[in-house]
Write a sequence for this structure.
């Protein structure tokens, strides 16, 4: 059985529980064991301003993952960014000395999207029981593929999610805003700006005739799904656009029950997407 160490991140127990549920369910069907690292700590998200503190927080998690001897899989894009850039930065012996880490860079840090789209695409296609018979706009956001030093896709025009969804039967239109920031990092300090930024993404998805938007980042999901009613109220527009984690869509094609994928936890109803895929 293939194994990875797993860093779920803080939001997996709160605002993005459905993402964690769907990740675990999909990997289980694929026969892959995720070994959650013990006693992991917060990666610092986007709030820790001190680079040294951020590196120290993430170095500790990397040491814990390295003890398992398994490459580390991360679902949250902010966590992936922080863990990945720390792994990359710790090539510097002086930085390693300053934060006092024993991390030896013997493992790889990988985003869940990278693993599923690049390692398990054929396996997913083989195991698929349903066709993803919907028009889906893939939205990567600004952190999933932006770190070009250690990323796994083109930082400006990524295609890994497009490729995965297309292989499962989805109609995937061209989407120029796929790597545009949703504004989520400044939601608490300047709410009006990120609401407008997210509205642009929703409007473009609507123009593309999308049945749904697919995401790979909890913060993007929060903005596009949970904040969608606030955006509609603020702008006087109606979108009613379902926003699903890409693992929820993959899970549906694999025959996993919607509730096990956390689809009942999404704010904007996913019923129509479920109906179209499972009919």
């Amino acid at each position: 059985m293939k194994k990875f160490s797993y860093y779920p991140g803080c939001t997996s127990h709160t605002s993005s529980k459905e993402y964690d549920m769907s990740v675990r369910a999909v990997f289980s069907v694929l026969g892959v064991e995720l070994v959650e690292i013990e006693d992991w700590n917060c990666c610092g998200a986007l709030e820790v301003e001190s680079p040294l503190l951020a590196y120290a927080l993430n170095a500790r998690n990397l040491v814990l993952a390295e003890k398992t001897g398994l490459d580390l899989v991360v679902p949250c894009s902010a966590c992936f960014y922080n863990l990945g850039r720390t792994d990359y930065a710790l090539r510097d012996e002086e930085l390693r000395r300053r934060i006092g880490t024993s991390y030896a860079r013997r493992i790889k840090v990988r985003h869940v999207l990278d693993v599923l789209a690049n390692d398990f695409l054929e396996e997913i296609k083989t195991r698929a029981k349903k066709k993803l018979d919907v028009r889906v706009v893939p939205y990567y956001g600004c952190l999933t593929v932006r770190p070009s030093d250690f990323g796994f896709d083109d930082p400006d025009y990524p295609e890994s999610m497009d490729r995965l969804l297309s292989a499962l039967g989805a109609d995937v239109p061209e989407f120029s805003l796929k790597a545009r920031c949703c504004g989520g990092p400044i939601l608490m300090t300047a709410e009006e700006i990120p609401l407008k930024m997210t509205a642009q993404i929703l409007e473009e998805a609507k123009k593309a005739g999308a049945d749904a938007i697919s995401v790979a980042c909890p913060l993007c999901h929060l903005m596009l799904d949970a904040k969608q009613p606030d955006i509609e109220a603020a702008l006087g527009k109606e979108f009613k656009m379902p926003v699903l984690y890409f693992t929820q869509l993959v899970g549906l094609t694999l025959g996993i029950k919607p509730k096990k994928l956390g689809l009942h936890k999404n704010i904007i109803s996913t019923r129509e997407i479920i109906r179209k895929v499972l009919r």
Summary: The chain has twelve helices and seven strands. The chain has a mean pLDDT of 95. Residues 134 and 170 are 5 Å apart (CA to CA).
